[in-house]
Every structure is written in structure tokens, then in C-alpha cells.
Write a structure and sequence with these properties.
The complex is a heterodimer.
Chain A (H helix, E strand, L loop, with lengths): L2 E6 H12 L3 E4 L6 H12 L6 E4 L3 H13 L4 E2 L4 H6 L1 H9 L5 E6 L13 H5 L6 E4 L3 H16 L7 E6 L7 E6 L2 H8 L26 H30 L6 E4 L6 E4 L3 H15 L4 E6 L1 E3 L3 H8 L4 E6 L12 H12 L6 E5 L9 H17 L6 E3 L11 H5 L4 H4 L3
Parallel strand pairs in A: 2-3, 2-4, 5-7, 6-7, 10-11, 10-13, 13-14, 14-15
Antiparallel strand pairs in A: 1-8, 6-12, 9-11
Chain B lengths: L3 E9 L4 H14 L3 E7 L8 E9 L14 E4 L19 E5 L4 H7 L6 E5 L1 H9 L5 H12 L4 H12 L5 H17 L1 E3 L47 E5 L9 H5 L5 E4 L2 E5 L9 H5 L5 E5 H7 L1
Parallel strand pairs in B: 1-4, 4-5, 5-6
Antiparallel strand pairs in B: 1-3, 2-3, 6-7, 8-11, 9-10
Helix pairs in contact in B: 3-4, 3-6, 4-6, 5-6
The chains are: A alpha/beta, B alpha/beta.
The complex binds iron/sulfur cluster (2 copies).
């Protein structure tokens, strides 16, 4: 039998890592991921897990070490946040393209500048097209469950791709919650022993890894990555099915809440989905038909499944905790994907974007109720006047004139000099 | 009880505020509650005011936004009583709970004439007497059991046994149980008047006012050197006190002080800049003739 424990999100993930007992963990601590590395290092120091734990000098080295270890046939993990993920950039693509099933919990944090340690999704969203599978978690329990499943997904013979498992910085990483921790043996049986497809250390079968590859082969190898990503969706569901059979908690590509008869729907990732559920309940009590959809798997993007789940609503709001600067309307990445999916699958209803919570700005149920109010009006009118709203940013209207905007140091702030 | 209870903790960095929020959550979890405990992270420096939160509910908690209207505000450090944000959002029938030996009228005065429910416990003294360490959290748990009825003394006893027995000896377990029991018994309740119907106490949130287009681009700070405006002296839990006879005016303290809080003129040590000295104790540690000692701030404040 498992047991209830009061754990921070990072501790829950460190527990998952202890139970997975990877051959190699190479990591560098960074706020707010620190709790993962710290707790796991403690497990190693106390002899509770026999993992080879490498304390490296940077995140670039952390992921490089994982790539080397994974190529050698080891089950390898790391974890990071924000600037750490940014520093891993070139190795992200290498891990994916070499088809190495590295698993990496990412504790979402804003990117500098200005310096900020709090939650938004700019870090992992920036890495959305790097070839990694991306799974987002609402709370500590999901972070634990998703980390366990990530190992199976990454190593699935149809997939063999690295996986990031996200949780919200501070909001989830540093909050103590009730988490059901499964029995060690049960977890071990679920994740199984790693069967590498081929290894650098197999002397019977010497292989070259990471070779040069020009216009004659490079493209075909990219096509491999496409195929692995395409097949990942089914593998993710298969692993979730086995997880549910063993542990009773059911996961899909996304989760819905009171969506069946909803007139308008909100789409939002991670911990904010929990807060949005409270807003949905509040408005339902007033008779509003509002519902929620929380994507769990963002890469591969379950475009068809998402649109089918939303086909009956009259308007959709997509909440993004990141901005795709310079993209259409300077909206968020999730919104852009949703628009594309709706067009592709013939859903022609208003889809508005609400960018929120950058740098850890609070988002409350009442603000989300405000978003639903906006969506109800959009559904009523059948059209959108403002495609992207930056929720809670001070001074949204009226916009500054070009002359005002050209002032690098606006008058108001230097009046005191 | 109502569906969910929300608690805000106030203390200073290094006093175990975050641990307190967590301990309560753990105790409540064992009594069958769904829980959440989380800190408000800013620059975490020893002595800086810190807040943490606990949520307890009979049903799963999906809310992940900050606590805005707490049912309980718990203050671990008396020196925070003058902080105007202490009562922010406190529900009209909520409780203010302070770790203090001061009389209730005195506390009420220090908290801007607060009239609502008040509970006081000299948790620091109990902890020092029973646990021989400054761990006010444990006796406070006993006081909370009494005040809120969220869990019983028996629940707490079970929880403490469960958590401590494995790691520590029976002596430690018994001392902790004693601390909890004394907290339960010694909490001083001063009901005051709840003001039903009144809106939660609001505090003007200064600062965040400028619209985005009026902020300097690129995150520039225009009044460089504005650290002088931050009264880091308010963070102090210990303060340096000098014995002038011993001072050789070597100015090691001036060289090492991270906050430039050593007052010097004409090459002579003059004293401390109280508005900015945050009580880190580095000056005392480096002073060659040991002319500086660190004294607990609350004792200085109480003496005033
Ligand atoms: S305790 Fe001493 S070193 Fe520390 S801030 Fe105060 S004066 Fe400076
Ligand atoms: S370090 Fe000690 S002796 Fe030297 S100036 Fe400071 S107080 Fe005086």
C-alpha cells in the first residue's frame, strides 16, 4: 500500500525520482527547482537510492552528461527551471534528435530580464518545438504521477524521445499538499527496467553516436523525429491506461471540467486550471454554463482531440502564461496552436486569448470570472473585438501615442529628480 | 466548520515561519483534512518580514491563488505588530493570534487599535522552558487546537508521536507533547468584538500604480542608490551593541558590514546606523577585541 504524505511539489518529484532510481542524475540547482535536486541528493547521500549523482557546474553540462549517460545505455534524468533551461538550449535539440529518452522535470519560472524567480511558462514554452514531449501538471500529485509516466513514455519503443514534466514554480513547487505516494515495489514494477535500443558500451556491437549528417541524410533523420512525435500520442494514452489500472488515477491528453453542456470554455494549463475550477463552480451556481479544459500533453499537441471536446461551445478563451513575441497579435503559444487546430478541424467560433500571470503575477478566481464574463459577451456577439487581453496589466487603455512611446525614460517617473 | 479555513503567518526570515505553516498543515492532514501550505517568497534574508499560508479543507483544494481574506492571522514575532499590512483582509470574525507575553491592551494598541478577536500565547517562553530551544511553533499548535477546534489535543499527540518517535528519543517526544499541552492551556483569549457585516480589513496597497507605458523601458531604475530609502533596520531580530572602552577604531566592522551601517567620522568608529543595520552580526564576529555583542531586538523594544 502507498501512503499519504505532506509534500512540496519538488519533494513529490524527488520521491518519484527515488522510486524510479535512474542510473544517472546530473543536475544543477536553480530556484525554484532546487527542492528536487536537494531532496534527491539527500536520498543519494543517505543511501536510499543507488543512482550515480553528478554535481555538474552548469545546466549545459547537466544535460550533456545525461545525453552521454543515455547514449551509454543508462536511464538518465535531470531537472531545471528558467535560465537553466535556457542554458541547456543546444543540448535540448541534441537529446531529442539522438532519440535519447531523458526525463526532465521543469519547474516553470519566468526568464530574465528583468530578473524574476516566479512562475510563468516562458521557459518551457520557448522549448516547445525542440523535439521534447511536454506534459504539464496542475499540482504536486500530478507532478509525481506524470514523472513516473514520463519514464515509460520516453522509453516506449514507438517513441524514444526525451520528456519534460512541468509544474508551476512556487505555486506548486513550494506548496505543501497531500500527495499519495505509491509503494516502491509497485512503482518499480510500473516503470520496469530500461531496455536501451542500443548502447555505446556494448562491445559486441560497436556503434558511432552523434555523427555528422548533411543534406543527404539530415532531413530523413528529422522525419524520424516527426514519426516518433506522431506515435507518442498513442503511447502516452497506453501508459496512462496501465497507470490507471495499477494505481487508480486516470490521465488523458487533457482533462475537462463541467464542459459537457458549457456555452463557453476556458483552456488553461497547470495550477491555474485548479483556480479556474473554483471560478467555474462560482459561476455555475449563478446558472452560467461555463466549462474548463486543461491540456496535460502540450507536445505532441492533441489538436483533433481538443477541438472535438470543444466543438459544442460558442466561444473559447485560451489562457497563456507566456507571450510569443512578434507572433500574430503578440498572443500566447497555446492560443496560436488552438487557433490553428480550430481552423484545421473546421471549428469556426471566436477564440480569444488571455495572457496572464507573467513573472508570478497573481491570478484569482474573481479575475477568471471576469474572463468568463468577457467570453459570454463574445459568445453573445459572435465575434471578438480584442483578440489578446493582457490580464491585470496596468494601463491597458488608452494606448500611448508614438511620441509618448518614444520616451525611453517617461516624464512621470523622473518628475522627482 | 466552514468548508475551508485560510491562515496567514507573519514572522521573520530564520524564525521558522514556513515550517510553522507546514507543521500545522501536517497535523491537520493527519486529522483528515486536505491541506495546502505555501510561503510568499521574496528576497529571503534573515530577519526580513516573511509571510506564509495554510489552507485546510474537508474537500480537495483546487485553488492555487494567494490567500486574500484569512480566517486567522498568526504573528510569530512581536516586533511585527506595527506592520500596517498585518490585518490586511482579515475576516471580521477572524482571529489575530500573537506569540507574545504582552497584555492584550498593549497588543491592541500596537496593532492600530484592533478591536476583533485576539489570542495571545507566550510560545517563545514555553519553548525555551520545555524544549530548551526557541521553537514557538510547537506550543502554538496546542493553542490553535484550542482556538479553532480543527483537531483535538489527542490528534496532535498522535501526530507528534508519529513524526518524532522514529527520529528522536522518548524524551524529545515527551517534551514536545508537554509544549503542545501548555500551549493549549496557556493561550490567553481576549474575544474583543467581532464586527459581523463589516467588510474585511483593507489596507491601501501602495507602490503598484504606474501604467506600463510610464515605466522606464528595460527595467531601468532611475534613482540609483535608492537603498537608503529601504529601512532594512526593520528586519532586525538582533542588534549590535558596542562597548566603547574596548573599541580600538580598527574599522574592521566598517569594512565588513554588508549594509554600510557603521557610522564613521575622521577615522573613528561612532556607532551604528539603526535605520539600516539589519542585525546580521558580522561586525560582532569580525571585531578583533570583541567590542560588539548582539542583543535580542525584542528585549530592546520591550525596554523602550
Ligand atoms: S549587525 Fe553589524 S555588520 Fe550587520 S548590518 Fe548591523 S552593523 Fe552591519
Ligand atoms: S571592529 Fe570592533 S574595534 Fe574595530 S572599529 Fe569596529 S567596534 Fe571598534
Amino acid at each position: 500500500m502507498g501512503r499519504w504524505m505532506a509534500l512540496e511539489g519538488t519533494e513529490a518529484v524527488a520521491y518519484a525520482m527515488k522510486q524510479i532510481a535512474p542510473d544517472v542524475v546530473a543536475a544543477y540547482p536553480i530556484t525554484p527547482q532546487t527542492g528536487i535536486v536537494q531532496t534527491f541528493a539527500q536520498f543519494v547521500a543517505d543511501g536510499e537510492v543507488s543512482t550515480e549523482f553528478l554535481q555538474v557546474e552548469s545546466e549545459h553540462s547537466a544535460l550533456s552528461a545525461c545525453v552521454g549517460a543515455a547514449a551509454a545505455g543508462a536511464r538518465a534524468m535531470t531537472a531545471t527551471s528558467s535560465q537553466g533551461l535556457a542554458l541547456m538550449w543546444e543540448i535540448l535539440y541534441i537529446a531529442a534528435a539522438m532519440r535519447l529518452p531523458v526525463v526532465m522535470p521543469v519547474v516553470n519560472r519566468a526568464l530574465s530580464a528583468p530578473i524574476n524567480i516566479h512562475c510563468d511558462h516562458s521557459d518551457s514554452m520557448g522549448a516547445r518545438d525542440a523535439g521534447w514531449i511536454q506534459i504539464y501538471s496542475e499540482n504536486a500529485q500530478e507532478a509525481y504521477d506524470n514523472t513516473l509516466q514520463a519514464v515509460r513514455i520516453a522509453e516506449h519503443p514507438q517513441v524514444r524521445l526525451p520528456v519534460m514534466v512541468m509544474m508551476d514554480g512556487f505555486i506548486t513547487s513550494h506548496a505543501v499538499e497531500r500527495v499519495w505516494i505509491e509503494e516502491d515495489d509497485a512503482v518499480r514494477a510500473f516503470v520496469g527496467t530500461y531496455q536501451p535500443a542500443c548502447t555505446l558500451l556494448n562491445l559486441e556491437r560497436p556503434l558511432t553516436f552523434g555523427a555528422l549528417d548533411f543534406y543527404d541524410y539530415y532531413f530523413e533523420h528529422k522525419r524520424h523525429q516527426v514519426e516518433a512525435m506522431r506515435r507518442a500520442k498513442e503511447a502516452i494514452l497506453e501508459v496512462a491506461e496501465d497507470f490507471a489500472r495499477r494505481f487508480g488515477r486516470r490521465y488523458g491528453l487533457f482533462e475537462t471540467y463541467r464542459l459537457e453542456d458549457a456555452e463557453v470554455a476556458l483552456v488553461v494549463l497547470s495550477s491555474t486550471a485548479g483556480t479556474a475550477r473554483v471560478a467555474v463552480d462560482n459561476l455555475r451556481r449563478l446558472g452560467w454554463r461555463v466549462g474548463l479544459l486543461k491540456p496535460r500533453v502540450y507536445r505532441p499537441f492533441p489538436d483533433h482531440e481538443l477541438i472535438e471536446a470543444l466543438r459544442h461551445v460558442r466561444a473559447i478563451g485560451v489562457m497563456d502564461r507566456a507571450i510569443a513575441f512578434g507572433a500574430m497579435e503578440n498572443g500566447g503559444p497555446l492560443w496560436l496552436d488552438m487557433l490553428a487546430a480550430a481552423y484545421r478541424h473546421g471549428l469556426h467560433i471566436p477564440i480569444a486569448n488571455y495572457v496572464f500571470g507573467l513573472g508570478g503575477r497573481d491570478i484569482t478566481p474573481s479575475e477568471i470570472e471576469g474572463i468568463f464574463t468577457d467570453l459570454m459577451q463574445i459568445a453573445e456577439r459572435g465575434m471578438i473585438t480584442r483578440p489578446v487581453t493582457y490580464v491585470g496589466v496596468r494601463g491597458e487603455a488608452p494606448l500611448p501615442t508614438p511620441a509618448e512611446w518614444a520616451l525611453w525614460l517617461p516624464e512621470a517617473t523622473i518628475a522627482g529628480d | 466548520m466552514q468548508e475551508m479555513i485560510e491562515i496567514r503567518w507573519h514572522g521573520r526570515g530564520g524564525q521558522g515561519v514556513v515550517t510553522a505553516a507546514r507543521l500545522l498543515a501536517e497535523a491537520a492532514m493527519e486529522a483528515g483534512y486536505f491541506i495546502q501550505a505555501f510561503p510568499d517568497y521574496g528576497p529571503e534574508r534573515s530577519g526580513a518580514p516573511i509571510r506564509a499560508y495554510t489552507r485546510l479543507s474537508r474537500s480537495p483544494i483546487s485553488l492555487h491563488s494567494p490567500v486574500k481574506a484569512p480566517d486567522l492571522v498568526i504573528v510569530l514575532d512581536e516586533t511585527l505588530l506595527g506592520d500596517p499590512s498585518l490585518l490586511e483582509g482579515l475576516k471580521p470574525d477572524g482571529w489575530l493570534i500573537v506569540n507574545s507575553a504582552l497584555p492584550p491592551e498593549f497588543v491592541r494598541r500596537r496593532v492600530g487599535g484592533y478591536k476583533g478577536h485576539l489570542a495571545l500565547l507566550d510560545a517563545t517562553r514555553i519553548a525555551l522552558e520545555v524544549l530548551r530551544r526557541n521553537l514557538p511553533n510547537t506550543p502554538l499548535l496546542g493553542a490553535l487546537a484550542r482556538l479553532t477546534g480543527l483537531f483535538s489535543l489527542e490528534d496532535l499527540t498522535r501526530h507528534i508521536r508519529h513524526h518524532l518517535a522514529a527520529k528522536f528519543g522518548e524524551d524529545v517526544v515527551r517534551a514536545n507533547l508537554e509544549a503542545v499541552r501548555r500551549g493549549f492551556e496557556e493561550v490567553r483569549i481576549d474575544p474583543g468584538q467581532a464586527s459581523p457585516g463589516e467588510r474585511p480589513i483593507e489596507v491601501p496597497s501602495g507602490g503598484m500604480a504606474l501604467p506600463w507605458f510610464e515605466l522606464p523601458r528595460g527595467g531601468l531604475i532611475l534613482d540609483a542608490g535608492n537603498a537608503i530609502a529601504y529601512r532594512t533596520g526593520d528586519w532586525r531580530t538582533f542588534r549590535p551593541v558596542v562597548e566603547m572602552e574596548k573599541c580600538t577604531h580598527c574599522l574592521y566592522c566598517w569594512l565588513y558590514c554588508p549594509d554600510d551601517a557603521i557610522r564613521v567620522a575622521g577615522g573613528q568608529f561612532l556607532g551604528f546606523d539603526e535605520a539600516h543595520c539589519k542585525g546580521c552580526g558580522i561586525c560582532a564576529a569580525v571585531c578583533p577585541p570583541k567590542a560588539i555583542i548582539m542583543v535580542e531586538e525584542s528585549r530592546v523594544v520591550a525596554a523602550v
